[in-house]
Amino acid sequence: MIEDTAASPLTAVPAPTRLVPRRRPDGRELLATAKGILMAARGCSDAQAFDELLDVSRRHHLTVVGAARNLVDLAAGSPNRRRTPDAVRFDEWAQLLAQLPRRHAHAS
């Protein structure tokens, strides 16, 4: 007896995947993230968070985006965070960030 192959279920063959390189966040994304961190940590407004970033960047002779990038790296606890003079300067925020609750990557 001949089997009808048209009625057999077909299994999907996964399409080849392209690896998309991870892009670095742009300045707007870094500023928004850094302001969100400060708003959560300090309970301040968007404008107050931006003013703090601006103040820190002026005190340390950095761009606002540079200050934001270092704050985001510090908050993320990035293991490959560069220990440049700019990064060291942001240890002033380390105590503030230590007070924030940590979220775990796995669900319980």
UniProtKB/TrEMBL annotation:
It holds the Pfam family ANTAR. Gene3D superfamilies: Winged helix-like DNA-binding domain superfamily/Winged helix DNA-binding domain. InterPro entries: ANTAR (IPR005561), WH-like_DNA-bd_sf (IPR036388). One of its GO terms (molecular function) is RNA binding. Residues 11-72 form the ANTAR domain. Residues 1-26 are annotated as: Disordered. It comes from the Bacteria. This is ANTAR domain-containing protein.
